[in-house]
Fold each of these.
Amino acid sequence: MNIKMQFADEPDKLSHDKWDLSFIGEAIDERGLKALEYITANTSKNISFEYIPKEFKTRFDTDILDKDDIVKYLAFTNGKRVLVDSTTLNFAEILILTQALIEVGVKDIEILYVEPVKYNRKSKGVDILHKRDFELSEGIVGYEAIPGHALLVTNEISQKVVFLCGFEAERIDRALEDSQISGANCSCIFGVPAFSPGFEMDSFDNNISVIKERKISGGINFCGATNPLAVLQTLEEMFKGLDEDEQMFVVPLATKPMNIGACLFLLSKPKDKVAVLYDHPKEIKGKAIEIANWHLFNINLS
Amino acid sequence: MNIVENSIAQNRAEELGYDLWEDFVIPPFYDGLDLLTAKKPRVVVGGRGCGKTSLLRYLCHQTQFSSKRSKITETDILNIGIYWRVDTQFAKMLSKRGFEDDSWNRAFEHLSVLMMCQEILKSLESIANSSFEQFESSDLSSFDFSILNSFRSEVPSDFAELKKFIRREINYFQTWAGSIRTTKQPIFFPLKFVKELVAEIKSQNDLFKSTDYLVYVDEYENLLVDQQRLINTWMKHSEMPLIFNLAMKPNSFLEKNTIGNEPIAETHDYREYNLEDYYEKINFEVFAAEILFLRLWKNDNTFKIPILPEELRSTETDILDKRKSDPYKKRVLSAAKDFLPSTSVDEMSKDVFTDGTLYNRLKELIRRAIKNNNLRGDVEDFLIPEFPQAGVIVPALLNRATSTEEILKEIEKLKLGNENKFTGTTDWIHNNLFGCLLLIYEPLGRFCPIYSGYEAFCLMSRTNLRHFLELCYKSIANELLNSNKKALKTISIRSQAEASKQASSTFLREVKNFGNDGNKLHTFVLRIGTYFSYAHKKPTQSEPEQNHFSIRGNRSIELNRFMDDAVKWSVLYESRITKQKGGENKAESEDFEYILNPIYAPYFHISYRKKRSVQFSGDEMNTIVFGDFKEFQSYMDKVLKSWKISPADTTINLFTQLES
């Protein structure tokens, strides 16, 4: 797998050819709208995609089908120039799509991400103790397996769990609450450098008490918040350290580029060795404010 | 003594692993549970942190045949416990996806069979590796499981090979479950496979001829409904030598159907044990102290304790009786109170008159009462340092209809040692002191001694051992930080009170993770806590220490469901109340009152004692539970106006955290 990364403060400065197909989600903020506007102008055909976790269904425009049937459905994408818009699609959707595209035989996938200037903090009546609280998710489905990327959490064999940390520490807490995972087997990756100076403090501050309370003691790592390659490489290093019998779970709760790194890791490793734990949050409308850099990640799978 | 990093800090069963032989304290009601001997299924119910998982893990082979256990007899192998907690995030994937429900049921049954067989084989290893002399590791290879190849020809007959085979099957099942369209479906094993395995073990080695296997399914409530029905079916048809037992949170046993026509029914098919009800019947304070001292001793064997650790893991009747005896309880409780001392309300009242800040606060409350109620008299007229308990409650009396003349007259009587309303049958002090002390401490931002002391810790924990241990752990950590002492014999009031605030905040934050409606529950706790917090600030203190409630009138299904969920997660405790309908000789009706989990009391600076209740209408409760921020704020504004409290009277605006 080969990854090329580029970013610019305006999309026109990004270097790429026109796409034949773009998979897009629903825009919930200004950057989403701008991303879709740009994609529409540079793509022959947009396909709206959605994953419905509890039902294990997917929706391509108006076609609804089982998640297990999408490889067949996507056969037409082989040989096409494909873009996946990670600004408007969530982690599970990106993972399911890219996995299916690989199975179809697509060799190059481009992933677009539009970075926000800031995130929406809790706006009214915020006191000093809650100034790092953000309004990012309006509801969470809960930790539910994504078919194809799931393993049993068990004490029978040693399992390492890597949390990619964002602002919402309660999601880590819930993962440990709902499972038999011990904090001693868990480690964290924080996004440093962050999108913007100071963001990393919000993330540290929000997560530190959960790390302490849950006795997460497997180590702390740092990767650039906009750098999927760094996350991929860090996870690969951890993977190399696994014993023959060990398995690894990745819990992507961080920035989208970091979660893309996790996604690429999951795509590239044996399914009986690595899996994902994901809680399927429904992102809140207007979660991000303004637009910073535009990122384009070119993933070569050959 | 580095207590902090060790025994006390581990307050979840998951952190202690499966072998709890040296960590588990037999609850004094153990002999009434018959969990290891019952021939009918049992359902263990209990809120988070009450010790369910620890109890189940204690019953299971890893603990019962622990290498740390010195004496194991043939009686011990008559009942072998299997702990089974299904990974629900994975199990949820075994549904829909264009596959028939019936097929998923068979797939789930297959996975369950494999997991149970794996544990049954491990239980034999546990016994072989234990101090039980009649069964050695070499005996494992004597089993011939060839009968199992009637299910599938590849099933090996040798113990070690069978173990490997099962592991491979589990791995293959995971692969198949992830890609059901492209991977060949395994041949699913029925429950009969487990029964045959058990039958072979029993028939091939005389030691096991009377052995029963007891499977304990933990966190049953997190399974899908179809999966629950399947397990209900196994439970309904449980018979020796394979009995299924369940463990779950309160209000969670909602699905009683089986995959057949008959649902399961309590008494006929199973018996339910509510652990928290048992705790309430025994002396929880003694049990909690035993656990605390065992942990302290485990960490540092030189720590002087009032218990014998080996007795705490004995199930012998005479030892259990000894632990229930008065002299024993007195000794243990006395040691616990020495380790976590408290300040009496009398001492706290004296502090109000000797500590400058507290004294100024008292004077300010009296001054405000005189001014707001247009009373005659000066602040000094109402200061009675020689009777501090009476002195502390004076501001509340001044805010009531009680005339200043009457108050002054009663103060005079008190001073003269005559019958008076402060201490006599009216007993103003008894009814108001605790609430008035809370009111004095409320805005000062300093530690409040009310939240310290062993008894307070037990009341705040109620029946939650995790909460209790966290309070102890944080107290010890604070003391080590505050005192630089190496050997701790006692924990200061300050360290304890600070720990209460810290633990309270931690556990409040945790509410967000209580299921998919965690955020709603968190918002509810903040709102109801805020309501009680303001109720504690009523100048009259006419109904001090309000911290629980009931709901009058009809309730919507949605509200009932929410209340059930809050009880399930132990955010609220539910208690039955009996009401008389329309006077004498009329039918009684049952209702519930709800107690906010007292662990949240320090956060909201409210009382953890169950004293006074408030009755909400269904509409009011709907606003508190489901109303948006503005609706709740407007409701609270009205309430505060009726209580003559201005939000500006408080130093911190509690509304700031209430947005959902």
Note: The longest strand of chain A covers residues 288-300.
Amino acid sequence: MVRDANGRGLTYAPPSVHAPLGTDDAGRDIWTQLVFGARISLTVGFLAGFIAMFVGSLFGILAGYFGGRVDNLLMRTTDILLVIPDLALMLVLVATLRQMDLHISPLTVLVVVIGLLYWTSTARLIRSQVLTIKERQFVARARAIGAGHVHIIRKHILPQIMPLIVANTVLVLSTAILVESGLAFLGLGDPTQPSWGTMLNFAFDRSAVTNGAWWFYLPPGLAIVWVTLGCILLGNVLEEMLNPRLTTHHLEGEKNMVAIQKQVKS
Amino acid sequence: MTSPPLLSVRHLTTEFHLVDKRIVRALDDVSFDVMPGQTVGLVGESGCGKTTVLMSIMRLLPSNGRITAGNVHFQGKDLLTLSEREMRDRRWKDMAIVFQGAMNALNPVMKVGDQIREAILLHKLMDSDAAEKRVEELLELVGIPYLRRDQYPHQYSGGMRQRAMIAMALGCSPALLFADEPTTALDVMIQAQVLDLLKDIQKRLGLTIVLVTHDLGVVAEICDSVVVMYGGKVAESGSADSVYNQPQHPYTQRLLAAFPDLNKPSDALAFISGTPPRLTDLPMGCRFHPRCDLKIAPCNEVTPPMIETSHAHYAACHFCQGKEAVFS
């Protein structure tokens, strides 16, 4: 807390030794808010991401493996969800669920709504992969040895799409964190448990920009960018590690090859 | 032949529904017997329905395939009347299949030993320790060192993969083994190895084998009887001896003539002109008549019945003189 001569907290105090990121319009420390906000942003993002991943993988596998009517039902559901603008639908859902007095915390509502709306692209991705795998001959062989559906999915299909699921989970996590921030910025977060998005919302509401208090709105914004970017880079690396077809050693420049040859000689 | 056949296929008819709503009859009225302990060769050109016969018998047709008529008696039971559950229990335990191109039939991300064990454990024939012992036995039987059980399929050579597939097929000691072109995509040396192995295993285990192949030489070498298929129908069937020495159907005759004789090298290879009929566009009457030299009046109108030309030797041709139409 930065205080003035009278012992009152200073509002919009710029960063200093006592408050590394300055204070907000109510004299609260921004650094503290940023640290505690990470907790909310990441928890909501991760939980929602995992729900989305689980639902998406399940729907994708079921639709791809069984085909026919199951496929039609699940994929048309996916299509319907895909064509409705996410943000508008989420706003309506979150707002309505809040009104309904269900005695669940606002954050839980956020987790469930994001989780249950963001599985569509995953489901399509997994389905297309399952479609190609189930036509491979070892699946026919598994049927021939008398294996049932559960066994085939667990032992022969899941291990093949696991790399895809893992790499995609990280990407969905980043989307979920971003969406959570977006919703919180629009005022749908929990004001008693501020996340990075809620901080941005406060900064916007209380004219941090016109007051020139960049230390109020830049830190949460950069934090969101940083985490999302980190997730995406991690996803790319994971994909490259888990999918040998994406390795590019053989395309690397001649310089590298010479170096390898020298190593071999010495 | 006093003992009842192990597998008896009668009037088997299988149809595929195409995307454009057309229906293709891939098998039409296919009938043949497989005696216990015998090796039966199923030969014919590509697309004549050899693999479809196997898949129909095992009821593993793709989802657009339907068996519309006929029955398949195996050990006295009609397989086509069993429920899916009962059928699943019987697969591999009673009849196993070595797929065409074993490299694709092995799961690339599973250890070979585990894949062999999978079938045994799936049918709960023994506990996991005993199954492991069995894997060891099987690998020894097909000549793969047990050390390599923990390797993945890509670490095996083509011949080894094929042998691993055979080991897998023998896992549950089936009475009947289907081998669907087990030697295609292998070079000649390995082909000979795999065939020797099959022959050897048959002698040792008293197995009944149905061997699907293009290669008449292979059939002559290891089969007791032959079923020649053409355009989804059986053209001729009988013991290997009589089919080779007295082929009745013109198709079989031309097929055998097309096989070059190493002792009398001639300049030109004999061949059958034309191509096999498209199943969507079958000729009337005998399916072979557009390519047949002998065709007479009824050939392009009437489908020739199956006739027993000599003991246990059947042919479907208007030229065949025989006792009477059979399998009716």
Note: Residues 258 and 310 of chain B are 24 Å apart (CA to CA).
